[in-house]
Amino acid sequence: MKKLDLKDKGKKEMENLLKKSEKELLDLKFQNSMGNLKDPHKITMKRKEIAKIYTAVRIEDLKK
Q1: Which has more pLDDT, 19 or 60?
Q2: 55 HSE (CA, 13 A, CB side)
Q3: Please, what's the b/e burial string for 13-48 (b: 16 or more CB within 10 A of its CB; e: otherwise)?
Q4: What is this structure's pTM?
């Protein structure tokens, strides 16, 4: 996810995306613990994506 993609979204949309990404991260962690995850780097990438979304939401809050 790029920052440009997040700038076009509204706050509610970003919050929904955040919930979805957090659920995906939880699923990835579960798969990793069970040994079914072939690429553990996906966990790191998902955590960074979540951080970008949190940052974009915070920037929206500060604009108001």
Answers
A1: 19
A2: 12
A3: ebeebbeebeeebeebeeeeeeeebeeeeebeebee
A4: 0.87
Q: How far is CA 25 from the centre of its chain?
A: 8
- Residue 2 has a pLDDT of 65
Helix/strand/coil for 46: helix
Number of domains in the chain: 1
CATH number at residue 23: 1.10.287
Range of the domain at 27: 3-63
Q: For position 11, what pLDDT does the model report? A: 86
CA distances (Å), 45 to each of 10, 11, 12, 60, in order?
23, 22, 23, 23
* Helix, strand, coil shares, percent, the chain, to 5: 80, 0, 20
pLDDT of 10 reads 86
